[in-house]
Amino acid sequence: MTNKALVVGATGIVGSALVRQLQDAGWEVHGLARNAGLLPRGVGAVAADLRDAPATAAALAGLAPTHVFITTWSRQANEAENIRVNAAMVRHLLDAVRPAGSVRHVALVTGLKHYLGPFEAYAQGALPQTPFREEQPRLAVDNFYYAQEDEVFAAAARDGFHWSVHRPHTVIGAAVGNAMNMGTTLAVYASLCKRSGRPFQFPGSSAQWNGLTDMTDAGVLARHLLWATQTPAAADQAFNVVNGDVFRWSWMWGRIADWFGLEPAPFAGEPRPLEAQMADDAGAWSALAAEHGLAETDIHRLVSPWHTDADLGRPLEVLTDMSKSRRMGFLDYQPSDDAFFALFAQLRAQRLIP
């Protein structure tokens, strides 16, 4: 049977990696994105505002995808609005593809806020024991991830398709204009430190500096998304997705510093948030970009210090269990330092960092 994918958020960190993976696998791929001009050759462009139900229905009329991959969300001022807007976006999307009766599988990408709580109560209160496992119950707090899941579950029950939910840890990958992009944020920060001679200071907590953690490469996540559509046992299941290694930031920080030719500053023993460290860096980045002929002069299109601070400032060790996927046969592995280095090399090749 022909596989026709609709990738929602196709130019983001996850979506762009998934588009490449699906194309390599021989799928017909259509991408829904705010800037369809960034889609690679061979991908059908779909422009729609998922907040607008009639416009979404019109944009998707006649497309008839067999598989829908939801890899995007819209950040709002508070969690109540996150829930209202993001649940509606999923609902409008699935209502729009319903008339064709073509959908066989819907995959939703969420993340570890499923276990750690929403931004307003992130890593606070009673949290499940680590490493996080898929069978652990939802937290007793409103969370837009839960609302997105519930929209998928309701549509699947109504329309008869299978689903999968994918919960990565912090994703390492490339995308310009992405709201949550630790890898590029650290690359920009390191480049500015090297140019100015500022100390390359770890911005996070002692729990993150000293404790074990893991991450998710965008390529691993893309392969996991494809695997779930092709593995009968994975139907109607939720999965954690990480690289398979664990590390301490006290080790990784030095590895990243070495890649950029920097000497890492000693850990201060308390957070030194990037949001404060980089608050006045727009001019310095513009000057550096002009000096090196970089493709993006607006630092705000590249960095998300608030998100990096949230992840690296957590007061607890965060580890993710992958046993469920391993038992079903997904055995991909990616050392996280290699994932960072591959990203940095890609950013340099694309003239996004010097």
UniProtKB/TrEMBL annotation:
<feature type="domain" description="PRISE-like Rossmann-fold">
    <location>
        <begin position="66"/>
        <end position="354"/>
    </location>
</feature>
<dbReference type="InterPro" id="IPR036291">
    <property type="entry name" value="NAD(P)-bd_dom_sf"/>
</dbReference>
<dbReference type="GO" id="GO:0016491">
    <property type="term" value="F:oxidoreductase activity"/>
</dbReference>
<keyword id="KW-0560">Oxidoreductase</keyword>
<dbReference type="Pfam" id="PF22917">
    <property type="entry name" value="PRISE"/>
</dbReference>
<protein>
    <submittedName>
        <fullName>SDR family oxidoreductase</fullName>
        <ecNumber>1.1.1.-</ecNumber>
    </submittedName>
</protein>
<dbReference type="InterPro" id="IPR055222">
    <property type="entry name" value="PRISE-like_Rossmann-fold"/>
</dbReference>
